[in-house]
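Q: I have 323 residues here and want to know how they pack in 3D. Can you give me a structure?
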Amino acid sequence: MGPVKKILDNLSGLHYRQEYLCLSKGSYTDPLHVYFVINDRIIKDITNLHLFTGYNPLIFAFPSLPGIEWPELIQLIFSHSILQANEVFSKKDALAVVKLKLLKKQPAGNTVIFYFEGTSGTHRFVSRFHQFFNSMNNRLFNKKAGNVFLHDNLYKQVQIAYAIPRNISLISISHSGLFNLFPTDLHGQIDDQHYIISLRIGGKACEQVEAAGQVLISKVDPGMYKNVYALGKNHMQPLKAKEHFPFGQQVSGKLKWPLPEQAVSYKELVLLDSFTYAIHKLFLFKIINQHEIQPGKATLAHIHNSYASWRYKNKLPGNYLLR
């Protein structure tokens, strides 16, 4: 580590060395809440009603909700306060704020999916002083080959998005007797029948999903965290024989594909639709089968260091799994 990098790291206000901190979702307490607001008035708690599906730009996906109209421009606040619908929030309630604009409406059976693109974000995870040095660190040292550079405000938007624990699941692909297995955290179930997965265009994983037209996605035990991160390289790897991957003995119900070791639950998905935006390809799937292998078992997720540092300073537990 060079002297400039070391100085900027020391002035970052960040408590942990790693940018993304793995955790067991089952042991994570006192989480942030995400509220949809219009004119500073709470419309709905959408903590569990949104999906994080893109980071360059920031993309959130929302299902159509009874009695809720999604305007062209929306604002989300991230808060530890319990706020009720129609309540007017004060600035002290908002630890972070993200503003978004409507990107796309996508029909999905009897519902509509609304995709919004981030336009700006502000947070108080670390002080403005520390944020200045974080921005400088980002500009100087995150422009690397193969790395997607996030400009200053986009970097803040992404830090905010990862203040909510995001499940890291494993995607299995099988095609012509060969396999791939790779992690994703840009995904989720949007309603009872549909699932969204976002992958970076240009990657072999994205091409393999398109070619196969079906995937198996598994939540895994938090103890798999080091193996799961190590599988990240498979986004750019060709299909290989089954023996190259940490598959267990169990197979899925319909596709009969091997399940990853320590899988907690899985869903089998068939591709319905997709669209490309910026560096992301967003796939919409129909859920054809799902199974809880270990009901109630904790699953692997991660959050950003910026919010984790705020939790540390405010004596909120983390139980992080440091790699």
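Q: Anything worth noting?
A: Residues 176 and 277 are 29 Å apart (CA to CA). The chain has a mean pLDDT of 91.
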